[in-house]
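User: Second chain of the day. Same drill as before.
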Amino acid sequence: MRRFLSLRFLFALSMAALLTACAAPVQHADYTAFRKSQPRSILVLPPLNETSDVQATYGMLSQMTQPLAESGYYVVPVAVMDETFRHNGLATPVDIQEVSPAKLREIFGVDTALYSKVTQYGSTYRVIDSTTVVAASAKLVDLKTGDVLWQGTGRATGKEVGMNVNVGSGLVGMLVQAAVKQVAHTLTDESHDVAALTSTRLLGAGPPNGLLYGPRSPKYGTD
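Assistant: Same format as last time:
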């Protein structure tokens, strides 16, 4: 009887903790510096690659311009950015991100620069399942002052963009399915598609913690 009551007590505590977590208010970012800066243009720097996949930097970079443009900002074209840095002897994300904000503003004539890094990129194998994961973080820096105006994270998986491989049920079937999906993800470069969803989540404007809408957006000033 005592053991039963203890279990009921533990269950009640767990439910109370769950309800408290669900009821916790969403923490909103501080946009004071962002509103004061009122940026109009963004230079997207090549992301640092913290993964083992050599394609992570440019796989992610190729998807980052669109959500920023849709959020209402002028974005320096990736080809222009890349060629300009190469012409100046800078070819790696590490070297590029070490260029001073003042120098970036002088070269490109933009208000802000987006510094980012890719923390996950590619397929993961978990015995009975396999999927592609892309995760990244970013911060927007005012090139006049060096202040960080905004920062955030984004993550997406292959399951969210859709790829179904069905080779049977049971443990053996699940193991085979995981292996097949691993090969399929590699052959189809699913990471590129997942990176698009990650970029949208990371760089899209709007609440609760996204970028503020830029001056080219009809929603400019509403947030």
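Residues 163-188 have pLDDT under 50 and may be disordered.

User: Great, on to the next one.
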